[in-house]
Amino acid sequence: MTKAMPEPVTLPMSRKNPVDPPDDLGRWREEGPIRPMLYADGHVGWIATRYETVRAVLADPRFSTRIELMHPPIGDLLRQAALRKRPGFFLREDPPEHTRFRRLLTGQFTVRRMKQLEPRIEKITSDQLDAMEKAGSPADLVELFALPIPSLVICELLGVPYSDHHRFQRDSARLLSLKSTPEQVSEAMDGLMDYLHDLVVSKRAQPDDALLSGLVATGELNDEEITGVAVLLLIAGHETTANMLALGTYTLLNNPDQLAALRGDPSLAESAVEELLRFLTIVHIGPMRTALEDVQVEGQTIKAGEAVTLSLGAANRDPGRFETPDKLDITRQATGHVSFGHGIHQCLGQQLARIEMRIGYPALLRRFPDLRLAIPSEEVSMRSDMAIYGVHRLPVAW
């Protein structure tokens, strides 16, 4: 028998504590695994908050990720329309189209290949710490450390000139800002597409040994498709890790016992990274799926065409999966978290992100043993207005 459901809720965004999910999510998780949710366009769909439910929907092929089937959980409907379907945006495709792109890219992001990048990532990290030290205390950790490291790495991996970083970082920020107008979103996306399309054309004429040239050489994708792939990888490759490096540092500085543990035992870096990924869950809006047919989930019928928002933050704080989930404990085995998603759309670059953080956090703490916030914790500007959570700036001193 179908269970009675409460009235539809709207996606909560306000937080009492900047590193904790909104309180409503935890309360809803206690009351039940799934409940009706009102989307920005008036659509009544669902939100899932329990760990097992979130994983089950993410792994179920009866749910689609196609953008034309999505309903915006928050924000301007015209802004959503500006993020229309484009060639190569395989994250918004279902099999077999998604499989075609994923197959071409998986070999580029294997654990073995990512480990081969470690010496270069260590050098990039060391160079950024040199620049930060030279700039002097206080400094903005985002500008001098957290953002440049993954930007440099993904640029080298793709074959994108880092000298153009101001351009693609600006456009990426506009795309991810929840305050951007539809015109700003379209302008930013068109700017990124035009820039990377020109780059792809140049790679076809003069190939190198980077990833974009490799995709050209397969002969399986046209220039527009490779451009779409490049946009996705470039944005995801620097925005997500940059925000984890900055927000993770902010969190450690506000948890001196955990900071001391990591500084005293660098071998904790691997478990610290997994725990920070779980605890912070910077993907704080979605992901979303749409039912392709009627599906039973936790005793409820999700009808064909109905959207489901998967709250990764609530799932990662589920006491049914993680003991004392609201406590940061860098010694815990936090593997199994859903911060990189789950199923066939699980983050392609997760191993690269892990390596950047495993190198980045200990190197930062070694270089600056007296690192501290340069302003009161409550004055740090949080990215609650962005699609990827984090901090806008992080003034630190040493």
List keywords for this structure.
16 helices; alpha+beta; Cytochrome p450
- What summary fits the major beta sheet? 5 strands, mixed
CA radius of gyration is 21 Å
User: Main sheet: which strands, in order across?
Assistant: 1-2-8-5-3
Secondary structural class: alpha+beta
Question: If you had to describe this structure to a student in words, what would you say it looks like?
Answer:
It contains 16 helices and ten strands. It is of the alpha+beta class and 398 residues long. The chain has a single domain (23-391), classed as Orthogonal Bundle (Cytochrome p450). The strands form three sheets. It has a five-stranded mixed beta sheet, covered by helices on one side. Helix 6 (118-135) runs antiparallel to helix 8 (148-158), helix 6 (118-135) crosses helix 16 and helix 9 packs antiparallel against helix 10 (182-205). It is globular, with a radius of gyration of 21 Å. The mean pLDDT is 93.
